[in-house]
Request: fold
Amino acid sequence: MIVPKFVIRELQTLADSSDGLKRGKGRRGLDLLHEIQIENPERVFVDDTDYPELEGVDAKLVKLAQQKQWIIVTNDFNLNKVAEIQGIDVLNINDLANAVKQMVVPGENINVFLLREGKEAGQAIAYFEDGTMIVVDNGRRFIGSSVMAEVTSVLQTSAGRMVFAKVANR
Reply:
């Protein structure tokens, strides 16, 4: 993994921000980069290339990727689109995460542990290991236990995927 020094500087700027949200994101980014570097020191490199004539990290990343024919790995929707328009290969982390999520289809039976009440009467909530929420109709009375549930539909939202199910015939 190659990380441009200007990206590290941007994370530092964010981490020093007076805005709490930006500061948290900057610190988290620096912490993650540090963890990756500790776990894989021989696979993380810092690139000193910079483009002082360009403003903004996104513009610099796009130019660097073009010049060195690198792939950009990001979860930034706008950077993803700008890079793709300019012919740069992009690996979107959100797309990768969605690709490895457990796939279920309507009619499939799944074993779930019901954790809490849902919003509607009779509903209970469970989760897959990847964090996908499962809303189980008629599951409220089984909260605190595992049940077999039949998937009724799967909804993809901007926040992720939700699975709707009903308690399977017992």
Q: What stands out?
A: The chain has two domains: 2-98, 109-167. The longest strand covers residues 146-157. The chain has a mean pLDDT of 93.
